[in-house]
TrEMBL record:
Residues 158-221 form the tRNA nucleotidyltransferase/poly(A) polymerase RNA and SrmB- binding domain. InterPro entries: CCA_bact, NT_sf, PolA_pol_head_dom, PolyA_RNA-bd, tRNA_CCA-adding_enzyme. The lineage of its organism: Bacteria, Pseudomonadati, Pseudomonadota, Gammaproteobacteria, Oceanospirillales. Gene3D superfamilies: Beta Polymerase, domain 2, cca-adding enzyme, domain 2. Keywords: ATP-binding, Magnesium, Metal-binding, Nucleotide-binding, Nucleotidyltransferase, RNA repair, RNA-binding, Transferase, tRNA processing. This is Polynucleotide adenylyltransferase. One of its GO terms (molecular function) is nucleotidyltransferase activity. Residues 12-131 form the Poly A polymerase head domain. Signal peptide: none annotated. Belongs to the tRNA nucleotidyltransferase/poly(A) polymerase family. It comes from the Bacteria. Its cofactor is Mg(2+).
Length: 382
């Protein structure tokens, strides 16, 4: 093993996700380390950069991986921040690991690859069980969301949440502790869950333990509508992937809500503007599709939809929304694509060149775009 002067003589262990995912055969992108028996002064002397705000965490001077001093926590208030953290050279590895949420996250490994597993994480990993490490699970309501998110990641591998752990999750809800989570942490976990392979499992798990009704009542109020919404999470336009997938999944999850409910939810979670905007566009597109099922759309109605999604200034929005329409109504998507293509050719500068200005310019632009859309909708002449 290559010598690392920065950690020579330190008692260090790889912990958490890297240990877990390596044994699952999942890709490991970075490593987190725990240092036992060291002080902040010694870490800084070795060139580590302190970055922890609430407890001693340092970045390696070359790899920039995180090295945290072994620590314990004591509950002293509500929510996930209501803890007193104690880090000192006397804290053992086992004491550090016992404060973690799930047994599969409470394994450690020496730099030489020796597994240290005091709480049965490996056996739970092999049994495909998510289980709490200790009764201290109920001290941190964020662990309800984390358990749900890990299930959203591993459900396809056959993982389940241990029934006794589900009981503690319900306890965190009935005690009211879940209500002390701040919006930013709820959204952070939710956005991560939306990027997991089985995001619907996250919301189903929160609904089962009662947390969804507390954190996002707009989604929980109608269980049948929620089931339909969860079924849409994997129904995305073909071109949607990568970092924007979570945003589109959120839009699909909430597109059935009325505007008041979507705005309430966005405000409660302090939703990023891009997510709120896309959710609104998806809802407008859903409304258009529902109207098309009831009867032919008029040029005026399609023009109103293009205006509402700000298509003239943000033309990049149109294609993926048409992709959304094509999932349910391919013929309608083709008609809308032609209507958009023809109407987008009517440019303000052309009308200005013809002498239109002010209010007359706007009225003529609207009229010609509507006519172009109606021409696209007109049946072909035999």
């Amino acid at each position: 093993m290559k010598r690392d002067p920065a950690v020579d003589g330190l008692e260090v262990y790889c912990v958490g996700g890297a240990v877990r995912d390596a044994r699952l055969g999942w890709p490991v992108y970075d490593h987190d380390w725990v240092v036992v028996g060291a002080t902040p002064q010694e870490m800084r002397r070795r060139g580590f950069k302190p970055v922890g705000r609430d407890f001693p965490v340092f970045l390696h001077p070359e790899s920039h991986e995180e090295y945290a001093l072994a620590r314990t926590e004591r509950k002293a208030g509500h929510g996930y921040t209501g803890f007193v953290v104690h880090a000192s050279p006397e804290v053992t590895l086992e004491e550090d690991l016992v404060r973690r949420d799930l047994t599969i996250n409470a394994m450690a490994e020496t730099p030489e690859g020796e597994l240290i597993d005091p709480y049965g994480g490996l056996s739970d990993l092999e049994a495909r069980v998510l289980r709490h490490v200790s009764s201290a699970f109920v001290e941190d309501p964020l662990r309800v969301l984390r358990a749900a998110r890990f299930l959203a990641r591993y459900a396809g591998l056959g993982f389940t949440i241990a029934e006794e752990t589900r009981g503690l999750m319900r306890q965190l809800v009935t005690s009211g502790e879940i209500g002390h989570l701040v919006a930013e942490r709820v959204w952070t976990e939710t956005e991560k869950a939306l990027s997991e392979p089985w995001p619907e499992v996250y919301f189903q798990t929160l609904a089962d333990c009662g947390a969804l009704a507390v954190l996002t009542p707009e989604l929980a109020d109608d269980s049948e509508a929620l089931d339909d919404a969860l079924g849409r999470l994997h129904c995305l336009p073909e071109e949607i992937g990568g970092e924007v997938r979570a945003r589109w999944r959120w839009a699909r999850l909430t597109e059935h809500l009325d505007e008041a409910a979507r705005c309430s939810l966005a405000e409660r979670l302090r939703l990023p503007k891009a997510h709120a905007a896309l959710a609104r566009q998806a809802a407008l597109t859903r409304d258009l599709c529902r109207e098309a099922q009831a009867g032919p759309l008029t040029g005026e109605r399609i023009l109103a939809w293009l205006d509402a999604i700000d298509a003239w200034r943000r033309s990049e929005r149109v294609a993926p929304l048409l992709g959304l329409v094509s999932l349910e109504a391919p013929a309608l998507a083709d008609d809308l694509a032609l209507a958009w293509r023809l109407s987008a050719q009517i440019l303000p500068k052309t009308l200005i060149g013809e002498g239109f200005q002010g209010r007359e310019l706007g009225e003529e632009l609207t009229r010609r775009r509507r006519e172009a859309i109606e021409a696209a909708l007109a049946p072909p002449v035999p």
